[in-house]
Specification:
With 308 residues, the protein is of the alpha/beta class. The strands form 2 sheets. It has a 5-stranded mixed sheet. The longest helix has 25 residues.
Length: 308
């Protein structure tokens, strides 16, 4: 009987997955739509989760044999720890027992890929933002990560919101000013029009991950628009604040930067470093879905040893 371990890295922008064998060889991998644990709060959201899990199950079925056993580990944004409802939805899609599904927060998953317990801090900036520390007792601590509606400063959604806010505030003061703004042109090209109705409809009807992608307009215009450079600089300051909050509580430790938003432009990292002089800072490039798959594989190994 062969063991297959599936790892999911679910975020607001996309959900990556990878399946590995008992020998740590990749069986299959792919990407589906962005998912968050917040989708559990509505019937439409639950159906969206079910459809995505079934899509992954269908893609993986071609790479599984009849005798294979499957375990799953999934990291989700919008959650602090294990979720039985999420575990059950995944179990149903893959026709396995819910006890064979482990759910983590996406930031804890990123931490496990960067450090051992107690070693350092992870600051994550994707659609949202959060900093994390897992202490020597394996207790998870956080700073930020309160959701894009409340905070998540420095994340992609925050940058998109700050960009739209700046453009429309300038329009209030000087109607037609957007014509001379590289940032406004880049934003409106993605939104589909330059009038307020286009922006309003986009911002208040789209998923958080879709809105977060507007941060690419900030990235693309950083060299030509001072508004974009200011947003990127302030994003670094917001993210450094998260790291400082953990340093104040637990002392100086190495800091690992993770998430796509950190990679948008060097200004973000430079601003982050300016706020934390002397800190040991590096990027973590771990494939979070692979980290999840290996955690799933290890959990299977531990159960197997316990049963012997």
């Amino acid at each position: 009987m062969n063991r297959v371990a599936l790892g999911l890295d679910a975020g607001g922008t996309s959900t990556r997955w990878v399946a590995i064998s008992d020998a740590d060889e990749v069986r299959a991998q792919g990407e589906v739509i962005g998912l968050t644990a917040l989708l559990l709060h509505s019937s439409e959201g639950v159906e969206k989760l079910k459809a995505a899990f079934e899509q992954i199950a269908d893609a993986l079925s071609a790479h599984r044999s009849a005798g294979d056993t499957l375990t799953v580990c999934a990291g989700f944004t919008g959650i602090d720890g294990h979720s039985q409802p999420l575990a059950q939805l995944i179990a149903n899609a893959f026709a396995i027992d819910a006890n064979d599904v482990q759910i983590l927060s996406d930031i804890e998953l990123a931490y496990r890929g960067a450090f051992k317990a107690g070693e350092g801090y992870v600051v994550y900036a994707g659609t949202g933002s959060i900093a994390a520390f897992v202490d020597e007792r394996n207790v998870f601590h956080r700073a930020g990560g309160r959701g894009v509606g409340l905070d998540d400063g420095g994340g992609g959604y925050w940058m998109a919101r700050e960009a739209l806010r700046a453009v429309w505030r300038r329009e209030d003061e000087l109607p037609g000013a957007w014509v001379g703004s590289a940032l406004a042109h880049a934003l409106f090209a993605r939104i589909g029009g330059s009038n307020w109705d286009h922006s309003r409809t986009f911002f208040y009807s789209r998923e958080r991950g879709e809105i977060g992608k507007l941060a690419l307009a900030v990235q693309e215009t950083a060299d030509s628009d001072p508004l974009s450079r200011d947003i990127l600089r302030r994003a670094g300051i917001e993210l450094a604040r998260l790291a400082q909050a953990l340093i104040n509580q637990f002392g100086a430790r190495p800091i690992a930067l993770a998430g796509r938003a950190f990679r948008l432009h060097p200004i973000i990292e430079a601003s982050f470093r300016e706020r934390l002089p002397g800190a040991k800072i590096s990027f973590v490039d771990t494939f979070a879905a692979m980290t999840a798959a290996r955690l799933a594989l290890n959990s299977t190994s531990r159960r197997k040893r316990a049963d012997q």
